[in-house]
Amino acid sequence: KTVENGSFQWSAPSNIALVKYWGKKENQIPANPSISFTLKNCKTITKLSFSKIEKTDNFSFDLLFEGKPKESFRPKIQKFLERVEVYLPFLKEYHFTIDTQNTFPHSSGIASSASGMAALAVNFMSLEKELNPEMTDEYFNQKASFLARLGSGSACRSIKGEVVIWGNHQQTENSSDLFGIEFSDLHPNFKNYQDTILLVDKGEKQVSSTLGHDLMNGHPYAEKRFEQAHHNLSKIKSILAKGDVNEFVKLVESEALTLHSMMMTSMPYFILMKPNTLEIINKIWKFRQETAIQVCFTLDAGANVHVLYPANVREEVLQFIKNELVVHCQNEQYICDEIGNGAMFL
Ligand code: PMV
């Protein structure tokens, strides 16, 4: 089938890892399996417009961010297109306009690469589906995740499902290094689980994730860490299925601190937490001890804190956040989010 021109628009969310992906091999293959909550509110909305052209030697595309030209995205998108071209052989037969916006504040220190690459991948899959209308939804989602991974590893966990596992794991049927799969056994205790993101440091990332993953090559503790991730993934799957929020708290906080320990013990070494990150962590621990409310934290490769808690304690925890934690945020900024479902066609 030939398709002359048209446009699609998709949103794709960010995600927050519970068992962290840190370390990769060639071709965006993860050194260990990971699992994440898909978010709902923090997302990228991307419109892909396309028109058929004479096949050229180069990719032909314009980039807009919030409606204005954005040339600084070009190298990243160019690299993505080069990587996925073998899987989307029609790319050089079209001129594209890629128009992107995020729902979260610009340079909030929230990585937009997962949501951005996921949104781009589903858009290109929509074009492939126009060309091959008999494509199944399963194929669409799996290939979208596969393509998103080539843009940014963790982006493959932002396509479909509330909880997504990515990476070969012996105890997880159908798991793959090549794409994310949905974990569908979530206990009602985790329904609408909340994630309030405290913006401690909104600056540019101190360590790019590419450099970060590289630091695991030859890292003295790498092998043990990869082993532990396999073990923790088995554990958290059972925790999520049983609804064991107490065990969830322990495992998730330990994973976050382990991620940061890996960075502190690599060469070169980095401390990505800020004093306010530690203030927040200590206050969360004190609050949990005093109230027995099962609120916990997790961290990305940066200083911001994700505060995770069940939906039924939302009021109490938000009060606590406003009274005690917001003072440690840059410009008192935080974002209320919760578990979501993945990419949406708009
Ligand atoms: O997808 P990348 O290459 O930006 O790596 C993300 C790494 C962490 O966010 C630190 C952990 C994870 O699993 O998302």
Automatic annotation (TrEMBL):
Pfam families: MDD_C, MVD-like_N. It comes from the Bacteria. Residues 197-334 form the Mvd1 C-terminal domain. Residues 12-175 form the Diphosphomevalonate decarboxylase-like N-terminal domain. The keyword rRNA processing does not apply. InterPro entries: GHMP_kinase_C_sf, Mev_decarb, MVD-like_N, Mvd1_C, Ribosomal_Su5_D2-typ_SF, Ribsml_uS5_D2-typ_fold_subgr. SUPFAM superfamilies: GHMP Kinase, C-terminal domain (SSF55060), Ribosomal protein S5 domain 2-like (SSF54211). The keyword ATP-binding applies. Keywords: ATP-binding, Lipid biosynthesis, Lipid metabolism, Lyase, Nucleotide-binding. PANTHER family: DIPHOSPHOMEVALONATE DECARBOXYLASE. This is Diphosphomevalonate decarboxylase. The lineage of its organism: Bacteria, Pseudomonadati, Bacteroidota, Flavobacteriia, Flavobacteriales.
